[in-house]
Each structure stands twice: as structure tokens, then as C-alpha cells.
């Protein structure tokens, strides 16, 4: 039985929206569209010769990746991509989070490990489904559950804020640098080391995990912004 006409139209829209998203992503990352630039649906639809529907879908995809922010009255605005901000956020995380894990890991319970394994399973499921908007949320949840028993409320509050601030950077790093599978593998290894009581090794891997994420995103942006500047 041939597919229905609405299904064909839906597939066509997804294909067009993917192409629009790819071109907009290229322009944002290489600096053609700077931070704060307003992406008007009608103008983009006219430029690409498409309807507003695939443009809207493309912008929603870019918002999930952290490249744009959609405001109710202003529309889609290009997010700031600052390597200095990335350095600061990930440097602070690499300093604080291993300390919290070192204090919390010995107190993790069987119920905690069950929850952490559940997060990893859901992460794998969302990875296969390419639900980018969930990657950052699950990453934050995984880290916060690991640190919850540290008994350092001020540091925990700072890290919670840092994770929230770096959420879009995390989604960018995972979606643009093919870092998703590496992140999933490192999360699983950190959890296994904690389970085995190898807390020092788990903290060392956590620091490497955070630093690696920041470095890969910074390198990606620097490379593509340099390419964009030469064009």
C-alpha cells in the first residue's frame, strides 16, 4: 500500500527543514549571523523559496541545539557563541564537580544507582531518536544525582547553576562535534567506577570528561569561525 499524501508532505517538509537548518547552522557557527541577530521567518522563507513551515521547523531544531533562542514577541534570535564563556563555564565545572563527586560517591545508595542507570538508558534512547533537546536535560540530571550526597550545599548550588548555564553549550557540543556516543560511554564508565568504589579514578575521568567537552566545542567553533572569516 503506497504511503498517504499527508505522510509524503510531512517527509518533504522534514527534508526541506533539515536543509534550511543546515544552512542557517553554517551561517551562525561561522559568524555570518552574529549573536543577537534576528532570524525572520518570512524573510528566510522568501530567501530559500519555501513556505514558513519548514523554516519554523528548522528554527525549532536550532533552538534544541542551543544555536538560537525563540522569544514569544521577538522571534528567533541567534545565541551568543563566546569561546571565553565556554572556557569559564567548563573550567569552573572541572574544578568543582570532581570535588562534589568525591564527597558524594561513597554515600550513593542502591536506589541512586538504579536511578542513574535509568538516566543512562533514557539517554541512549533519546540518542537513537535524535531528541537533542533532552540530551542536555539528561546530562544535567545525571551529574546532579551523582553529586546529591556531597553535603556541600553552596558548591552544589553553584554547580547546578553552571550546569543550567552550560546546557545549550552541552547540546551544541553533543550535536555538532559527534560527542554524544563518547559522552554516553564516559558517563557509563564514571558510574561503573563509582559502583566499584574506585572514587579517585571516577573523579579523574569526570574532570577529563568535562574538560574534553569544553575543548571539543571551543575547537569546533574556532575552526568554523576561522573558515567563515576567510570567505
Automatic annotation (TrEMBL):
Pfam families tied to this protein: FCD, GntR
GO MF, any single term: DNA binding
Coiled-coil region(s): none
InterPro entries: GntR_C, TF_FadR/GntR_C, Tscrpt_reg_HTH_GntR, WH-like_DNA-bd_sf, WH_DNA-bd_sf
Record flagged with keyword Hydrolase: no
UniProt keyword annotations, A-Z: DNA-binding, Transcription, Transcription regulation
Domain of life: Bacteria
Domain HTH gntR-type: 14-81
PANTHER family from the UniProt entry: TRANSCRIPTIONAL REGULATOR, GNTR FAMILY, TRANSCRIPTIONAL REGULATORY PROTEIN
Name the record gives this protein: FCD domain-containing protein
Amino acid at each position: 500500500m503506497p504511503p498517504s499524501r499527508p505522510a509524503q508532505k510531512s517527509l518533504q517538509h522534514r527534508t526541506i527543514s533539515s536543509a534550511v537548518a543546515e544552512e542557517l547552522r553554517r551561517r551562525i557557527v561561522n559568524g555570518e549571523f552574529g549573536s543577537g541577530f534576528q532570524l525572520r521567518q518570512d524573510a528566510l522563507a522568501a530567501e530559500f523559496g519555501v513556505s514558513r513551515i519548514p523554516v519554523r521547523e528548522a528554527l525549532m531544531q536550532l533552538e534544541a541545539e542551543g544555536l538560537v533562542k525563540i522569544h514569544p514577541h521577538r522571534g528567533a534570535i541567534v545565541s551568543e557563541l563566546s569561546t571565553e564563556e565556554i572556557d569559564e563555564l567548563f573550567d569552573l565545572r572541572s574544578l568543582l564537580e570532581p570535588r562534589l563527586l568525591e564527597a558524594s560517591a561513597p554515600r550513593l545508595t542502591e536506589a541512586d544507582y538504579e536511578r542513574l542507570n535509568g538516566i543512562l538508558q533514557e539517554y541512549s534512547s533519546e540518542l537513537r531518536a535524535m531528541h537533542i533537546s533532552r540530551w542536555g536535560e539528561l546530562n544535567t540530571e545525571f551529574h546532579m544525582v551523582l553529586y546529591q550526597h556531597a553535603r556541600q550545599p553552596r558548591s552544589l548550588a553553584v554547580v547546578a547553576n553552571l550546569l543550567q548555564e552550560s546546557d545549550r553549550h552541552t547540546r551544541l557540543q553533543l550535536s555538532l562535534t559527534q560527542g554524544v556516543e563518547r559522552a554516553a560511554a564516559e558517563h557509563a564508565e564514571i558510574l561503573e567506577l563509582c559502583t566499584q568504589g574506585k572514587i579517585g579514578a571516577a573523579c579523574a575521568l569526570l574532570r577529563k570528561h568535562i574538560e574534553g567537552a569544553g575543548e571539543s566545542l571551543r575547537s569546533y567553533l574556532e575552526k568554523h569561525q576561522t573558515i567563515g572569516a576567510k570567505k
